[in-house]
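pasting for ref
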Amino acid sequence: MKIAKVRGMVVSTHKEPSLRGGKLLLLQFVDEEGNLLPEYEVAADNVGAGIDEWVLVSRGSAARQPYGSETRPLDAVLVGIIDTVSIDNRLLYSKKDQYR
């Protein structure tokens, strides 16, 4: 899994039938210091994330696992909304501090 920040939404009116009704988000990856990297990815949102939230992204074969009874053609899926990230006892990110 990787950490990313939700930067926007992707709207597609014509898409693979198994993707209908799902939300697609534009993500920007975050490095170990909390800096935004110049890497972007579109991911399906399974957790209801919003703009500017930090999220956990599952990529590759894990993202293609069956959802209900169908397999969806995905490369990336949001699997969690992050509350906090700390490294070496230093708080790198806190969701509650983001909205102060």
